[in-house]
Specification:
single chain; 64 residues; mainly alpha; two-stranded antiparallel ribbon; 64% helix; globular
């Protein structure tokens, strides 16, 4: 089952929306879609970014 990462997960990791928005721009991710519906964990994993992995782990813990 695919885990959906949301802004709730970003906030749970104590990350700011400004920095997150920059991250989305750098990685060609859809910020508006993310805010509306969240994005699948695979989108974050594909970036290879350590902070993205932290957010994915938080989302997985929330959805257990």
């Amino acid at each position: 089952m695919t885990v959906i990462v949301t802004m709730r997960d970003i906030r749970a990791c104590k990350m700011c929306s400004g920095g997150t928005r920059d991250f989305f721009t750098r990685h060609g991710m859809d910020w508006n879609r993310f805010l509306k519906d969240g994005l699948p964990e695979e989108d974050f994993i594909a970036t290879g970014d350590a902070m993205a992995m932290k957010v994915v782990e938080t989302a997985r813990g929330r959805q257990k």
